[in-house]
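INSTRUCTION: Work out how this chain folds

Fields: amino acid sequence; protein backbone structure tokens

Chain under study, with its fold:
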Amino acid sequence: MSTTTLTRREQRAKAQHFIDTLEGTAFPNSKRIYVTGSQHDIRVPMREIQLSPTLVSGTKDHPQYEENEAIPVYDTSGPYGDPDIAINIQQGLAKLRQPWIEARADVETLSDRSSAYTRERLTDEGLDALRFTGLLTPKRAKAGHRVTQLHYARNGIVTPEMAFIAIRENMGRERIRSEVLRHQHPGRKLWRAPAGKHHPGVCAR
């Protein structure tokens, strides 16, 4: 079987077309839903898996089926799993956590990059065509402040990131009627929320 070898120009054009037409897509038999909490801007992405009906009785000619509830699972695909979100990789992810970070008022924006290497790279015009246009200005903790989720937790502060994780771990079980599906693993004594001040676009993991 013969294959056509693309030139480098054609390969770049094909890659650019893929980037320009990229859009969110749900898995087969699934749809994106969002579970909300008491705070209006917390929307936890879930993938609701549609199940086929179960054959329970009847005959070959007249089978009787029982409908099954959809099962929600946590969706880590971000905007790429939501067909209703316009994807633009030049702009990057939406800054979902930016208001949460700013509301705590415990970080400040640096006037410049502290790394000499980074400053050198930013002034290199030869890299302009490759540079991500949505670069953020670095932040740091204000004097006398700690800005980790662990520090907030130890001081009894419930952050939106923690609320996000709690909703995610609950998996929207209050929406489910079946007791079998409502069963949840008891879990382990392990808690991590790697959501730093420099990554406002990430979901708390």
Remarks:
- The mean pLDDT is 86.
- Residues 55 and 65 are 4 Å apart (CA to CA).
- Residues 8-20 form the longest helix (13 residues).
- Strands lie at 30-36, 43-49, 54-58, 63-66, 71-74, 107-109, 139-141.
